[in-house]
Amino acid sequence: MRIKFILPALTEATSPFFRPVKYSLFPPLGLATLAAFCAPDDELTLVDEHVEKLRLDDDPELVVIQVYITNAYRAYEIADCYRARGCAVAMGGLHVTSLPDEAAQHADAVCLGPGEEVFPHLLADARAGRLQPRYVAQTRTLLGVPPIRRDLIRRALYLVPNSIVVTRGCPHHCDFCYKDAFFASGKGFYTQTVDAALAEIERLPGRHLYFLDDHLLGHQRFARELFVGMRGMRRLFQGASTVDAILRGDTIELAAKAGLRSIFIGFESLSTANLEGANKTQNLRHSYKRAIARLHELGIAINGSFVFGLDDDRDDVFDRTVDWAVTQGLTTATFHIATPYPGTAYFQRIEAQGRLLHRDWRRYDTRQAVFVPKHLSPAALERGYWRAYRDFYRWTNILQSASRGGSVAHRLRRFAYAAGWKRFEPLWDFLIRTRQLASMLPLLETILNRPEPTASSAPMVGAQEDL
Ligand code: SF4
């Protein structure tokens, strides 16, 4: 069977002002995971429109499209085009799961929830010519999932070709998070076996890995066994965690020993009222400062994520957040405008309060205000958001932030990482457009590399929380 897997580009990618670096980081692992269920004699193609041109003049028998909110209209355009020519189209992903009736107008079949469970059934039905209109994942397991078809990925087009996911979902339920809608009909958090995860790591060349898991430390026993198993593999890796997990037990030390060099943390807000309002309980009653100090001592750089526009935010939130992030020595910061994604509790609340401005999904990109904030105008929220980025990445702030916490070598590495990432964005764009991105991977590995922490440098904070 001829099967084409497509990750459509969000609409702005067609603009000459498009900054491609954010979308050239990671290959479309989800689609490559589904491709693994195909038969050896199936003819497969996988196209990521963010990094390569999509042809629409071919004639696959089945088109599988991954949809997220800002690429939804482009996805529908592509689907309509193929269906008009008689090709069967299946769609899945976060946006399809949130709004299946909208997506179903453009597809022969929609998949709700994680694809691993339902895709084999969908494939069998497609072969038999009796696709069902809707497939809903109910049970949750990663047992028996075949190895990802990484051979379909054009590695040279991505800065981080070695991205990997070893868990699904997250044990928490922040009310603005898209993933709750995605996992609504079953278990919301589960893992691969440790052996399967280690085998997947073994298959990846080079040293650098990026774990795209929502919460790599979310299942402590799994995470600990994984990190112990990774010791001696000489990997350097990045991943995401929460404040409470960093302070719990010594899992973060095991991660550092296994090669963790940079971590993404959703601090979201410095306001307790905002955290409570968003059900971000894992950040409450845990000291951000202690978590940060612990990471600095272990030589782990921090990418802090913050949301602006929650109900307790006023005019001063932007400057206060940037000052705090710089003072704490965060290496990079990711700012977002609060965005009520359909299917979330946050969306329901904002909609019920009549504060939604529109449903133009292209603009639900966390850079535009799509609702009326409580104490700010939408325009002030957008201005503050852009100013926060500008201020955080001023040379003076990069220097100041890098000078806080950890060893001299750790500070130098953080400076190189932050400066390289944000201050040289035009260079990244040039490398992407000239297809030389892969040549930068050794540089990234050099920046992240460092000697193993010595026993005397291991911090003691958090030991009382082992219980
Ligand atoms: S911790 Fe992150 S991934 Fe988990 S529910 Fe909250 S926002 Fe979502």
Task: Give me the secondary-structure topology.
Blueprint: E1 2-7, H1 29-35, E2 43-48, E3 62-66, H2 72-84, E4 88-92, H3 94-98, H4 100-104, E5 109-112, H5 115-128, E6 134-136, E7 163-164, E8 167-169, H6 179-182, E9 189-191, H7 194-203, E10 208-211, H8 220-230, E11 236-241, H9 243-247, H10 251-258, E12 260-268, H11 272-277, H12 288-297, E13 301-308, H13 317-327, E14 332-337, H14 345-352, H15 378-392, H16 395-402, H17 408-423, H18 425-433, H19 441-448
Parallel strand pairs: 1-2, 1-3, 3-4, 4-5, 5-6, 7-10, 10-11, 11-12, 12-13, 13-14
Antiparallel strand pairs: 8-9
Helix pairs in contact: 7-8, 8-10, 13-15, 16-17
The structure holds iron/sulfur cluster (SF4).
What structural class do you assign from the helix and strand content? alpha/beta
Question: Could you give the order of strands across the largest sheet?
Answer: 2-1-3-4-5-6
Give the CATH level 1 class of the largest domain.
Alpha Beta
List the domain count as a whole number: 2
The percentage helix is: 25-40%
Strand tally is 14
Outline, from the CA principal axes? globular
Beta-strand percent range: 5-15%
How far is the first residue's CA from the last residue's CA?
54 Å
What value does the average pLDDT take?
89
Low-confidence stretches: 453-467
What small molecules does the structure contain?
Answer: iron/sulfur cluster
